[in-house]
Amino acid sequence: MDKDILTTAEAAKILGVSTRTAQLLIEGGSVPSWKTPGGHRRVYRADVEGLIDLPLAAAAPPSARVVVVASPERAPRYRELAEGLAEGEALVFDDSPGAERALRLAPPRILIIDIDGADPARMDQLHRLADEASSAQVLTVGPGSAGDLPRARAVETPKAAFETAREILAQGVAQAAVGPFPLALNEAHRLVALERTGLLDTPPEEAFDRLTWLAARTLDTPISLVTLLTPARQWFKSRLGLDMAETPRSWAFCNYTLMGKEVFSVEDLSADPRFADNPAVAADDGFRFYAGAPILDEDGYAVGSLCVIDRKPRVLTSDQSRALMELARMGSTEVRLRGAQKRLRQAMGRGDAKTPPPNPPRRG
């Protein structure tokens, strides 16, 4: 008789994922669980089997990318909203050709089209965009109908479009329990994306050490980190000026960085009620200044962050903020390149990718 209560390893076998990925799913809240007196996680078989038909079960979370196309006059509002999209990455374009290139580069989960004031010629362009994004959920913003766009769902305002986008990005994933720090609605998807990077608990690497060195020197701070956040840990892929290799996740200022797409900074941590009681702040010679920017994978998930810390209060200048953001984008490029290389190796292993033909013989 099949067991009704499973261990993490048994749940992993049913889902067809690694034990580590199953652990992330369980601890992230995708599968309800409890701890035995000995501290071991247990889950119900029915809850595990309930995940099998969801995208999460394949350990390949759906894209968290959103493409927005709006007029030059309305695009700034969408960019403002995009900065606070915790569940994914939103790319905003004020022209159709730019949006079309983005669609071809990486198919998004959602396409938001602002039809407010669009003339017939622009509507034709928007129709072509909707056709190009054949796998995306299309949202239209503006008065009246959805403009007869295929598969379109009409919403009234830019804010409503992003609220709907958050709901779509969170579909098919259980929300994590409320804790002492903020979490995106699709945190469990983010955890699987993090595991997919293969970076957790790996040795130091020059590509990431270069980023922390540049960040510390550019912003003149004694501490710089590349952080990766698991359900329970904040682990440092690269660290400069700090001896410890990890902290409890509840200590992580980067929890707040992952909730946005721009630099998150705190001039004096001890004066901020969110952080004043944090052990890293309350300790003797505790931290006072923090600034971080998210590192995103190819699907738009914030898998980590690049941050700088000081033991004295600081004011982040606009140039320093720009520098930190650009360095974090370099980190995102590194993560995305590794993801592309991994997919290529997998495709070659399955025989999906074409191998280059042999060199032709030289003419003698």
Give a summary of the structure in a few sentences.
This protein has 364 residues and is of the alpha/beta class. It has helices at 8-15, 19-27, 45-49, 75-82, 96-105, 120-132, 158-169, 187-197, 206-219, 254-257, 279-282, 318-350, and strands at residues 5-6, 33-35, 41-44, 65-69, 89-93, 110-114, 137-141, 152-155, 223-229, 233-240, 246-248, 264-266, 289-296, 302-310. The protein folds into three domains: 5-60, Orthogonal Bundle (Multidrug-efflux Transporter Regulator, Chain: A, Domain 2), CATH 1.10.1660.10; 65-169, Rossmann fold; 203-348, Beta-Lactamase (2-Layer Sandwich), CATH 3.30.450.
Sequence-ordered SSE layout with sheet pairings:
Layout: E1 5-6, H1 8-15, H2 19-27, E2 33-35, E3 41-44, H3 45-49, E4 65-69, H4 75-82, E5 89-93, H5 96-105, E6 110-114, H6 120-132, E7 137-141, E8 152-155, H7 158-169, H8 187-197, H9 206-219, E9 223-229, E10 233-240, E11 246-248, H10 254-257, E12 264-266, H11 279-282, E13 289-296, E14 302-310, H12 318-350
Parallel strand pairs: 4-5, 4-6, 6-7, 7-8
Antiparallel strand pairs: 1-3, 2-3, 9-10, 9-14, 10-11, 12-13, 13-14
